[in-house]
Amino acid sequence: MITWMGYADEVGENTYAANDTTKLVCTPGMAGGERHHTELLYPIGGTIASLMRTQGFYQFAEDGLKDPFEHAFGCTLWEFLTTSEEHKAAFDLYMAARRPASQKSWFEVYPAAQRLIEMSMLKESDVLLVDVGGGLGHEVVGFKKAFPEAEGKMILQDLPATLESVKLPSGIDAMGHDFFQPQPVKGARIYFLRQIMHDWMDSKCRTILQELVAAMDSDSRLLIDDYVMPATGAEFRPIHMDICMMLYLRAIERTRSQWVALLESVGLEIVEIFTPTNGFESVIEAKLAV
Prior knowledge:
CATH class of the largest domain: Alpha Beta
Structural class: alpha/beta
Helix content: 40-55%
Strand content: 15-25%
Largest sheet: 7 strands, mixed
Radius of gyration: 20 Å
CATH architecture of the largest domain: 3-Layer(aba) Sandwich
CATH topology of the largest domain: Rossmann fold
Number of helices: 12
Shape: globular
CATH superfamily of the largest domain: Vaccinia Virus protein VP39
Order of helices and strands: EEHHHHHHHEHEHEEHEEHEHEE
């Protein structure tokens, strides 16, 4: 079973070898992920039947209706994480580690090097990149390492409780921010969202996006690092994530047409969608609609 699932390679009779997945799941971040899923997801599954017998099961349970997590634990996932330091720490480590060795970084899927060349000259006070809801900063730090000479400021935004444990290299500033509130950084060249949208139903996503739209100018680009589900023939990983989002957060992994509709509803238009060949997340580039 372990080799069938790809956690190790079978190299002979009763002989097994570690592979990239083995090494990944042994890291602190993926250990945190195992705790997150086993201790939280299993109780949700055990209470689905009672949820269906009482209020019914709704993927987009609006206010007043409970999602499966809330039915099982008596609070939302986000509320739960504010009350459990151990689970919050495991969750943050998991979010920082959820990129297998075979998966390209977003700035490799997206032609970041070419886009940086195409950008007009930035002044020292200009902001190049805002990593919105960026957790412990793994994505913005990776971008900074890949492009150390890039001009302009880089900012990591998340809730103050998350940023308490963050240590950032020179050139990246931390800023406490709730992405449901007005975006304080105006006119940045790039606003980056990694796996934020898939945590929320459309109505909540529109609020997040509207705050970003209000801060963007004609040179700004919104980059969304998230799954773009095919209309048919989806692979296992995004299907698995789609079900998890429904159970944890009354949310969804979206198809291209769903992304188009969501972004157009707040005054954005898609420039291009960059999709890797291995079934992982795409990068959606969007700008203010003309």
